[in-house]
Amino acid sequence: VEIIASPAQMQRWSDDARRRGETIAFVPTMGFLHEGHLTLMREGRARTTRLASSLFVNPTQFGPNEDFSHYPRNFDGDCALMRTVPVDVLFAPEPEAMFPAGSQTWVEATEVTRGLCGDHRPGHFRGVTTVVAKLFNIVKPHIALFGEKDFQQLRAIQRMVSDLNFDLEIVPVAIVREPDGLAMSSRNAYLTPEERERALALNRALRAAGECLKRGKRTAAQLAAAARSVLERTPGVEIEYVEAMDAETLKPIDRLERPVVVAIAARVGKTRLIDNVVLSPGLTS
Ligand code: PAF
């Protein structure tokens, strides 16, 4: 894996690759890689001739009381995992290279970042869309892959790419789960064994929403209530939100006439976890 820290050098790498007629897939990450990231990378590898990734723990997407300073890091381990894919080039800039003194331009998708995590993490999505816009301008990919686990992030980035005419394709990739159903996340590393057990309630709650749809319930409120009741019955799981929203716009809906995303954020101990499932109205038993 070639490691590049300078934005200008990364741009040159991509310009050269494009001049040679290569196509570039890009997987941005904050490191501490797991099978979810590797799935995105393998998918990118299969679709283009060059695979780029980035590792940057973006300070602008963390709130003042969030886990920026102790976000898990393992640069050497991440590079070793990237070699297994293999990733061709890793862009790993210092914070000063991404946000030099005097930076003052932000990119914000407005409506789609209202509600869900947007209500609980003020400024988070503005930090995400800003850094991702910068990464797109630096890495210049033809396609970029994002996991559906961060569903609102995916929708915000799709909105940004469409609204600002970025010349690239966003490829969504399904959530990767542990064999027991826990959605893979770098933050799972924070969980004690007992907390990890309790965290399985998130996936159980989403499955309960799916069962509810199969039993013929037809409102978003009914699906959300089914998921909520599973979480409420699990001690040590503190709900931040459980919502069923239009899966395209992330706006509230009443009757399930279009695909709906049931999304959860909950704290297990000190760890904030998110998970979701997209359900379609045709899904009946
Ligand atoms: O999903 C993530 O890991 C981050 O939000 C991203 C897209 C790399 C931006 O910092």
Q: Please, could you describe this protein's structure?
A:
The strands form two sheets. The chain has a six-stranded parallel β-sheet, sandwiched between helices. Strands 7-8-9 form a three-stranded antiparallel β-sheet. The mean pLDDT is 97. With 285 residues, the protein is α/β, with parallel strands linked by helices. The protein is built from nine helices and nine strands. The longest helix has 22 residues, at 193-214. It has helices at 7-19, 35-47, 75-84, 95-98, 116-120, 124-139, 151-163, 193-214, 220-232; strands spanning 2-4, 24-29, 50-55, 89-91, 143-147, 169-173, 237-246, 260-268, 271-279. Helices cover 38% and strands 20% of the residues. Bound molecules: pantoate. Pantoate (PAF) binds next to strand 2 and helix 6.
Write the layout of secondary structure elements.
Blueprint (H helix, E strand, L loop, with lengths): L1 E3 L2 H13 L4 E6 L5 H13 L2 E6 L19 H10 L4 E3 L3 H4 L17 H5 L3 H16 L3 E5 L3 H13 L5 E5 L19 H22 L5 H13 L4 E10 L13 E9 L2 E9 L6
Parallel strand pairs: 1-4, 2-3, 2-5, 3-4, 5-6
Antiparallel strand pairs: 7-8, 8-9
Helix pairs in contact: 6-7, 8-9
The structure holds pantoate.
First-to-last CA distance:
48 Å
Give the structural class: alpha/beta
Would you identify the regions where 5 or more consecutive residues have pLDDT less than 50? none
Rg over C-alpha atoms, rounded to the nearest angstrom = 19 Å
Total beta strand runs: 9
Strand content: 15-25%
Helix content: 25-40%
Bound molecules: pantoate
Main β-sheet description: 6 strands, parallel
Number of helices: 9
